[in-house]
């Protein structure tokens, strides 16, 4: 019988370390192509046996079972069964197991072993198992599985020679045996039970903590159960942002009003008094009331990071991100962008693939940064009734959650489009180690929250303060004739009236146009400039005292409010984001592209929202 070299294939669950083993075993002797007819990568390379004889080693996509339906898993099944076009059936199967996750990995391993083909098991990641206080006896496992078991640490090149030798032995037995001897078929629940028994039987020692952590991972990283848990958690976070913050916000609001009243009663009526009350206290105060909501959001983010859950979320997201041509590597930069796009864009430096990185930079502004929270919150509080949709689920929190989701979905769609057009190229792999679960320490949490509060207050005291005062000046000069609108007469009013022509089709009035320009300096200024401009234009003392929310309800329709929210989901972020994009991409091309596509999307979606809302009778 004459044929090509012997073929061995690496099979196992996702993240068992197959590709790491493949790279370690084949080195530079690799070929990468696509399987004919499918877009799943075919990775094959040459492994030299201890005798010097070559074996073709094939790295298969990770799989949870033969019944699975994803194109990747379908290829894995077909290759093993010898049904895949362009691929000879492997003579030897190398099952790769994650020793620190043995029970879970043994489920699919049994299904592969049922085929009765010549098989070797690589018990990989024994270093991680040892770190977690877990010792596994390879000899005992070999008895239970009925095939040789070799301990490996792919990333440290440990056990590679022994594995190659075992492959050689299995290959010799394959040559001498006439046909595979299939084992009895068992059902999935039986396989799960057996997996637990075998894992327990082969485990020499295990700490109680490891047992609990392994159980948590089994749930939180589960391909079906994991994402709903993540989603539910985020949902709770956004509900909390509204419900927990309310009393603190009321207190801050009361403080600002009291301060305004104090200034009004102490100073004689003058422009200076107006600057203090309407400009500074009104404008900056309108932003500062959102401190509690920002701190609650960060409290959750910090807890998720400190406990080790965030890395697991990245791990879960890796599969979803792969769907849009990105990897889990983009998850951390994108997550940082929920605080602010600037650190997020800077964090993309850890992404090695240039096209991955560029795509991540371009979509980072679609993640809802914390500066947008005040804008969303003020509009939602004014226009969305504070009703319960379900027990414990408020409509306001739900809308906020929806806005965040809209940003994420928008980002994923944009990534998908970009990866097929401007940043076309193959997706790169994801390498990440999961940290141990830990209880967060109160000190670290307090420190993290304090830093966040400080960043926010400093912004309010410097950038937002300056922009608010400048806007107030532009709104107050030149002075209007008595009885005429001050905003219409002012410099800012003239500019806004010009811009309003463009914005009118999407339901934006002059006040909004006025707020949009300074909000390019900092998002929160949209809130303070609305507060300032309504204060400047009211002479009636009774109306002047009204909260911003009441003013908005007075001047805007629901359709306009919804369009405004949609605008803020997509509109380009502040100037600093554009500047940092220029720096990170070395030129004006990509920041220019970013501005253009984000303005385009913002206009389109604000318009769609407005027209649909008007058509539904909300105008
Ligand atoms: N500490 C440690 N890490 C490992 C070991 N083997 C692999 N890894 C790491 O585990 C992660 C997953 O490894 P991969 O080789 O990509 O896993 P895979 O089985 O090819 O995964 P899929 O292709 O998704 O099925 C990577 O971050 C590897 O660096 C090991 O023995 N020890
Ligand atoms: Mg792989």
TrEMBL record:
Family annotation (CDD domains): FeoB
Keywords noted in UniProt: Membrane, Transmembrane, Transmembrane helix
Transmembrane segment boundaries: 219-242, 280-302, 360-384, 396-418, 456-475, 556-580, 592-613
Residue ranges annotated for the FeoB-type G domain, each copy included: 5-173
InterPro entries: Fe2_transport_prot_B_C (IPR011640), FeoB_GTPase (IPR050860), G_FEOB_dom (IPR030389), Gate_dom (IPR011642), GTP-bd (IPR006073), P-loop_NTPase (IPR027417)
Pfam families assigned: FeoB_C, FeoB_N, Gate
Source domain of life: Bacteria
Protein name: Ferrous iron transport protein B
Naturally occurring in which organism (per UniProt): Novosphingobium pokkalii
């Amino acid at each position: 019988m004459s044929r090509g070299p012997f073929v061995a294939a690496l099979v196992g669950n996702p993240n068992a370390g197959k590709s790491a083993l493949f790279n370690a075993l084949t080195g530079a002797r690799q070929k990468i192509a696509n399987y004919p007819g499918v877009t799943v990568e075919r990775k094959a390379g040459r492994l030299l046996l201890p005798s010097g004889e070559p074996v073709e080693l094939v790295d298969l996509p990770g799989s949870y079972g033969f019944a699975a339906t994803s194109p990747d898993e379908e290829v894995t099944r077909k290759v093993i069964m010898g049904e895949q076009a362009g691929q000879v059936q492997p003579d030897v199967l190398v099952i790769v197991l994650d020793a620190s996750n043995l029970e879970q990995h043994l489920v699919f391993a049994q299904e592969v072993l049922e085929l009765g083909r010549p098989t070797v098991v690589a018990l990989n990641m024994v270093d991680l198992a040892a770190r977690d206080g877990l010792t596994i006896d390879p000899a005992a496992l070999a008895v239970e599985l009925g095939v040789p078991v070799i301990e490996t640490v792919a990333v440290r090149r440990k056990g590679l020679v022994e594995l190659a030798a075992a492959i050689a032995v299995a290959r010799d037995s394959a040559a001498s045996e006439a046909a595979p001897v299939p084992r009895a078929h068992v059902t999935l629940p039986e396989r799960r039970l057996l997996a637990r028994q075998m894992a327990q039987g082969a485990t020499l020692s295990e700490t109680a903590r490891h047992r609990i952590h392994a159980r948590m991972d089994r749930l939180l990283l589960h391909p079906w159960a994991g994402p709903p848990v993540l989603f539910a958690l985020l949902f709770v976070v956004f509900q909390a942002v509204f419900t927990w913050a309310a009393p603190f916000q009321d207190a801050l609001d009361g403080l600002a009003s009291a301060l305004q009243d104090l200034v009004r009663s102490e100073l004689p009526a003058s422009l200076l008094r107006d600057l203090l009350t309407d400009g500074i206290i009104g404008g900056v105060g309108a932003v500062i009331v959102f401190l509690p909501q920002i701190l609650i959001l960060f409290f959750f983010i910090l807890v998720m990071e400190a406990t080790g859950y965030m890395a697991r979320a990245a791990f879960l997201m890796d599969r979803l991100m792969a769907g849009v041509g990105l990897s889990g590597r983009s998850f951390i930069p994108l997550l940082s962008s929920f605080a602010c796009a600037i650190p997020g864009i800077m964090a993309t430096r850890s992404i090695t693939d240039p096209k991955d990185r560029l795509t991540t930079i371009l979509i980072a502004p679609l993640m809802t940064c914390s500066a947008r929270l005040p804008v969303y919150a003020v509009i939602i509080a004014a226009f969305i009734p504070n009703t319960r949709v379900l027990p414990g689920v408020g409509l306001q929190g739900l809308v906020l959650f929806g806005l965040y989701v809209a940003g994420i979905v928008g980002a994923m769609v944009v990534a998908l489009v970009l990866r097929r057009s401007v940043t076309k190229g193959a997706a790169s792999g994801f390498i990440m180690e999961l940290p141990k679960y830990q209880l967060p320490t109160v000190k670290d949490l307090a420190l993290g929250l304090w830093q966040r509060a400080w960043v926010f207050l400093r912004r309010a005291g410097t950038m937002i303060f300056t922009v608010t005062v400048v806007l107030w000046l532009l709104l107050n000069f030149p002075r209007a004739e008595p009885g005429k609108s001050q905003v219409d007469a002012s410099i800012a009013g003239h500019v806004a009236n010009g811009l309003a022509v463009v914005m009118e089709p999407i339901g934006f009035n002059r006040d909004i146009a006025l707020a949009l320009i300074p909000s390019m300096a900092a998002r929160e200024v949209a809130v303070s400039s609305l507060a300032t401009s309504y204060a400047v234009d009211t002479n009636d003392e009774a109306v002047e005292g009204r909260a911003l929310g009441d003013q908005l309800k007075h001047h805007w329709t629901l359709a306009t409010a919804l369009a405004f929210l949609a605008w803020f989901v997509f509109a380009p972020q502040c100037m600093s984001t554009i500047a940092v994009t220029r720096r990170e991409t070395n030129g004006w091309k990509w920041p220019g592209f970013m501005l253009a596509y984000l303005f385009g999307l913002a206009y389109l979606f604000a318009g769609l929202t407005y027209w649909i809302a008007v058509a539904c009778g909300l105008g």
